[in-house]
Structure formats: C-alpha cells, structure tokens
Automatic annotation (TrEMBL):
Residue stretches making up the RecF/RecN/SMC N-terminal domain: 1-520
Name by which UniProt lists this protein: DNA repair protein RecN
Record lineage: Bacteria, Bacillati, Bacillota, Clostridia, Eubacteriales
Species assigned in the record: Acetivibrio thermocellus (strain ATCC 27405 / DSM 1237 / JCM 9322 / NBRC 103400 / NCIMB 10682 / NRRL B-4536 / VPI 7372)
InterPro entries: DNA_recomb/repair_RecN (IPR004604), P-loop_NTPase (IPR027417), RecF/RecN/SMC_N (IPR003395)
Alphabetized GO MF terms: ATP binding
Length: 570
C-alpha cells in the first residue's frame, strides 16, 4: 500500500506530505484546491508522461516521492530484473524529479531507474481510475487472468497440469527443430560439429599434459639462471675453482685435524666421525649438482615446440573448455550430438509420437479449461450485472467473450500459457446498443462507475494493492451516490482505496479523511493537506452538504450520515 506521499513544487503545491492509511482514504476540498494535482503527482511516480508546466511557477524543478509497503512476491522478479535490492521490511521508495529543461531523474530504493521501469513497477502497485486514465481493466490481456481468478479451484488444477504438459511439449518441439531443421541449417550444424571433433582429435590431448609442458617451459626459459646457480654451487661446495678452497676441502681438513686429537678424549673422536659424515653427505650433494649442471642444456628448438603446443592447448581451451578434461568431455558430447543428427530417423519418429501424445493431452486440458471459464463467465456476468443495476446503470450490459481458437498453423495448434482461449470483457452502456470491447467505451464518470462495478466483484481476486478513484461521482447524486460510497467501502476491505470526491455520501464512508485547501499568504498561493479527526470529518461533510453556510441542521445531517456509514461498515 501507499504509506506516504511527498510532493514539492508541483503546480500550486509548494511542499506537501501525506500519510495514508489502510482502507478507504477520501480527499475532499473546494474545486481548484489541488486534489487533481495530488493524483497527477501519483501518476508521475507511476511513470506517466509529464509536462514541464506542472512545475510551480518560479521553481526550476519538482519532486515527487512515494513510500510503499509491499508484499515481496508482488515485485521481487521486477526488482531482480532491474538489479535493485529488496528491503527486508518490505519498504519500497519511488521518486521522480523533473526540471524545466525536461530532464527526468527517477529512483527506486535509491537506485537510478528509467521512466519505463517506474511504469512497469507502478502497474503492480496502483490502479488509477479517473476520467482520463488507462485502467488495468482496459488491458485486454489481463482479462483472462481476472476471469481465471474468479473461477473455481478446478480451473487452477487444470491449468497447473496443462502447464506441465506444455513445458514438455515445447521441449520436444525444440529437440525436433534441432534434429529436423531446414536442410541448410542441418548441413551447417553437421559441418561445424565435424570440424570441432576433428580439431580436438588432431590435438591428441592427454590429461596432465599442460601442467608438464608448463613445467618444462619454465625450466628452459630459466636454464641460464639455473646453470649459473648450479656452477657456482659446485665450485663453492666441491671444486673450489675461482673461490679457492671449497667447502668440501675445508670439511675434510677439519676431519683430518680432529684425527690428531681423537686419542685424547672420546668426544673428539665423536666429533671427527660426525664431520666425516657431513663430508660424505656433502660429497654426494656435490656429485648430484655436477650431474645436473653437466646435463643442463638450453634447446631453443624444444622451447619452440613446447610454446607451439601450449598455444594449441590455449586456443582449444578458449573454444571448448577451461581444461583438457573439459575439452575431452565436450568432444564426447558433440560426437553424440553428431551421431543423433546423422542417424536421427528413429529418434525423430519417437519424438513425433511423444509430441502427438502431448498434443492430445494439451487439447483435452484446454477444452476442460474452456468449459470452466464458460461457467465462470456466466456467474461473473450475472454478478457484475447486479452491481451495475445497483449503481443505477440498469441499461448497461456486461458480457465475457471467450474465443476458443483450435485452428492450426503449419499443422500445429497455437497453445499458450492459458490454453487456447482468448478472453475479452464486452459492454453496452445503453439499451439497444451492441456490445463493444471494454477498452472502447466512452471515458468519463460513466466509465469509472462501470469500472467500479467490475472492481467490486473482482475485489477479492484482483491483486493490485492500491486503487485510486478520481472523481467517479461526477453526474450522480442520491441513491447512486450512496451506492458508489458503499462499493468503495467494500473494495477497501481487500485493497487500499484512495478516492477524490465532492460527495458527502462517499466522504462519510472513509476510514481516513483529508481536506485539501488552497491558502494565499504574502501574495503566494499554495495547497495544504490536513488529515481530519472525527469532528473535522463531521464539519467537512456538513460543508459539502450545505456549502459555505454550516448550520445545526447540516451538522446533524452529517452526524446521521456518519452513523449510518458506521452501521453499514459493521
């Protein structure tokens, strides 16, 4: 629901903050006070088109911000598509700033968004019903979902089963297309697969080969450094060379010196033996270093071969997988795919049999879904007809047109997620006139009341959280006005409803009343919004009833209306 609305510099509004509540919220006030501006501002954050002359005179920009409390399931997929984080407490903040230069800055939960994103999100949050708005009920594609929501639970069970078979049907069709696509496409696919298999086979890949080659390459590239290190170590430890005496020579000399004193103490003898052991170990090390040095050769041809082989592996990895193992797995997969294409007659025949079987199941389920929709449509027509009569629209007829399209195209039926039905709401607003699509009826208060009748019946199944009715009371009074108020009250049990009205019959039904006033201070005119308490609500209803002059009689009348409204709500 819409919790808070902040408007800055829109028309005669300087700055207004409105805290809205559950149930029925009614906005009243004198003509020109700014009620329609508030609705225009809400339309702004719903992504509707804006004109720069809406910006308050003397200001260079206007800002509208709305705070919603939303069920995660309702908008989660959209926010994920938009890359916008979801707040754990369900808060959704939508804002739009527009300037005299025509620049728009939109945000959803603080993240920059486009006007198109606001529009998509807005369609999930608010339904605006006014004299010049495109209501959700005017979108023909939504009619089938609304009818299905009104139908029995059996329809949903059939639909769930249908969708499972539809998924299988589509997978079979996709596989058949792969196997029996047009001849040129098939030949192109065969050529590609053969080329890829041949390229991988020619490479004669071996598991662990890349790691071994990389190791050899490192040795060759660093062979000079390795040779120098081995030579220096050999001279230091074994031969002496340019360094003079070697470590081995000095250790042997130390062992010899200890041989001259070993007879004086057993400790000296022990030390001599340990030194001799070091000499033996070092002599072995020196021999190994010499062998490594003597066998160390830099082979530029071998390095070139290794580089070339690694390049082959790199190119194959770039095309077919991140490792030799993955490339070999890919080869096995495309060999199987090629085999299926080359020898697919048996597979295609089997798939065609499965497709025919799924088609039969889908057609049966589509027919059963159609039967359930026809049943639901009769009940919906009857219920909405009663509501229209209740709203003094006795000559208005409402029908649900259901077209079951089982025609074929290229030998296949045109199954969609709803079966084979196309649903459209039809209406005739005057006796003797033919039924026309709901989207083509005249706009204005008449259409709004027709919408109100439909919304009253669909209130429990329509998932839009917030509904706005902008001056749907134009041209009505008396009993019809009373009925409109009752319908709005009924709808508000399942939705947040915001209504702009001039009628006391509607204002008295409100759970929250707001008075929109226009004040002039220091030569400047601005709109103010005041939430009314119980006394203020009574006085406002009395003002609507009696105009400028509020008498004891109008106050008593207002109190009576409020009492009757409370009784109705019970």
């Amino acid at each position: 629901m819409l919790q808070r609305l902040e408007i800055q510099n829109v028309a005669i509004i300087d700055k207004v903050e409105i805290e809205l509540g559950d149930g029925l919220n009614v906005l009243t006030g004198e003509t020109g006070a700014g009620k329609s501006i508030i609705i225009d501002s809400i339309n702004a954050i719903l992504g509707q088109r804006l004109y720069k002359d809406l910006i308050r005179t003397g200001r260079d920009k206007a800002i509208v911000e709305a705070v919603f409390q939303v069920d995660k399931k309702r908008v989660e997929d959209l926010l994920e598509d938009f890359g916008i984080d979801w707040e754990e407490d369900g808060t959704l903040v939508v804002s739009r700033e527009f300037t005299t230069s025509g620049k728009n800055t939109c945000r959803i939960n603080g993240r920059i968004a486009t006007v198109s994103m606001l529009k998509q999100l807005g369609e999930r949050l608010i339904d605006v019903h006014g004299q010049h708005d495109n209501q959700s009920l005017l979108r023909t594609e939504s009619h089938i979902d609304l009818l299905d929501s009104f139908a029995s639970s059996r329809l949903q069970s059939l639909k769930d089963e249908y969708l499972k078979h539809l998924e299988t049907y589509r997978k079979i069709k996709s596989r058949l297309k792969e196997l029996t696509g047009d001849k040129n496409e098939r030949e192109r696919k065969i050529d590609i697969l053969k080329y890829q298999i041949d390229e991988i086979k020619k490479a004669k890949l071996k598991t662990g080969e890349e790691e071994e080659l990389s190791k050899q390459r490192e040795l060759l590239v660093n062979s000079e450094k390795i040779t120098n290190t081995l030579s220096n170590a050999y001279e230091l430890l074994g031969s002496g060379g340019k360094f003079g005496e070697s470590a081995l020579d000095m250790i042997n000399k130390a062992a010899s010196d200890f041989g001259g004193i070993e007879e004086f103490d057993a400790k000296y003898d022990e030390l001599k033996k340990r030194i001799e052991a070091v000499a033996i170990e070092l002599d072995d090390i020196v021999s190994e270093i010499r062998n490594l040095r003597d066998n160390m050769e830099y082979d530029p041809d071998l390095l070139m071969q290794i580089e070339s082989r690694l390049d082959v592996l790199y190119r194959l990895k770039k095309k077919y997988g991140d490792s030799v193992e993955e490339i070999l797995e890919y080869k096995d997969k495309i060999e199987k795919e090629l085999d299926e294409i080359l020898n697919n007659e048996e597979i295609v025949n089997k798939l065609n049999e499965e497709l025919l079987e799924e088609d039969g199941k889908l057609y049966r389920l589509a027919k059963e879904m159609n039967n359930e929709r026809v049943k639901a449509s009769k009940l919906l027509e009857e219920k909405i007809g009663e509501e229209l009569k209740d709203l003094e629209k006795k000559n208005t007829s409402f029908k649900v047109r259901i077209d079951f399209d089982d025609s074929t195209e290229n030998g296949e039926r045109k199954y969609n997620n709803n079966g084979l039905d196309r649903v459209e709401f039809m209406i005739s607003t005057n006796a003797g006139e033919p039924l026309k699509p709901l989207a083509k009826i005249a706009s204005g208060g008449e259409m709004s009341r027709v919408m109100l009748a439909i919304k009253t019946i669909l209130a429990k199944v329509d998932k839009i959280p917030t509904m706005i009715f902008d001056e749907i009371d134009i041209g009505i009074s008396g009993v019809a006005a009373q009925k409109v108020g009752e319908k709005l009250c009924y709808i508000s049990k399942n939705h947040q409803v915001i209504s702009v009205t001039h009628l006391a019959q509607i204002a008295c039904m409100a759970d929250n009343n707001y008075y929109i006033d226009k004040v002039t201070e220091n030569g400047n005119t601005r709109t103010v919004v005041k939430k009314l308490d119980e006394r203020g609500k009574r006085d406002e209803i009395a003002r609507i009833l009696g105009g400028a002059s509020i008498t004891d009689i109008t106050l008593k009348h207002a109190e009576e209306m409020l009492d009757k409204a409370k009784e109705f709500k019970k």
